[in-house]
Design brief:
Blueprint (H helix, E strand, L loop, with lengths): L1 H94 L3 H14 L4 E7 L1 H6 L2 H11 L3 E9 L5 E6 L2 E6 H21 L1
Parallel strand pairs: 1-2
Antiparallel strand pairs: 1-3, 3-4
Helix pairs in contact: 1-5
Length: 196
């Protein structure tokens, strides 16, 4: 019976050692798996942080770029408004010239047009107060056979200058039209004077 007890004891001891070996092996396997998962999680964490940093940087650059563009556009709009005011002011200055200067302007401009034929002279309210039949007579004398100007009874809706009209075709010499025609070529120079 002693043999059976020894055998049983040996079996139990072997089983206990086997159990310890299996548990140690399982613990080791568990630690390897946990270690791999932790490493993978840290890798993933680093990757997510890098992506977030890149996205944040790109977003920041887009916001700054958008803000810079808006500032530039607002600045450009403000400059355009100032330039527009300068040209509007120039029309006001032209509209306030003396009566003699206005009559000289009308006469010299019409004479410089050359052979104009028969035309109706359209003036605004202020111009109608300055131009009389004597002026029209003198103007026609100066034109000779190159033209025949008649004072129109229509009062123009413009700040200053005049319009010559015949059969619906107009030669526009209003201050607004003259300034507008020069605006494209003078805008750059005006901007240089104002903003440099």
């Amino acid at each position: 019976m002693a043999n059976i007890n020894n055998l049983t004891s040996k079996i139990l001891k072997d089983s206990e050692e086997r159990k310890e070996s299996i548990l140690a092996s399982a613990e080791e396997e568990k630690n390897k798996i946990l270690s791999k998962k932790v490493a993978k999680a840290k890798e993933l964490e680093t990757e997510i942080i890098k992506k977030a940093e890149v996205e944040a940087k790109n977003r920041k650059e887009r916001i700054i770029s958008s803000a810079s563009l808006k500032v530039r556009n607002d600045k450009l709009a403000a400059k355009q408004e100032v330039i527009k005011e300068v040209f509007d002011k120039s029309i006001d200055v032209l509209s306030s010239i003396s009566g003699d200067d206005f009559l000289r302007f009308v006469k010299n401009t019409i004479l410089s047009l050359g052979n104009i034929g028969e035309q109706n002279l359209i003036l605004n309210k202020d111009g109608m107060e300055l131009v009389d039949l004597t002026f029209i007579y003198d103007l026609n004398q100066s034109l000779g056979d190159k033209g025949n100007i008649k004072l129109s009874s229509n009062i123009g809706n413009f700040k200053g200058g005049f319009i010559l009209e015949r059969n619906g075709i107009e030669i526009n010499n209003t201050y607004e039209a003259l300034v507008s025609s020069l605006k494209d070529e003078l805008e750059f120079e005006v901007a240089n004077v104002l903003f440099n």
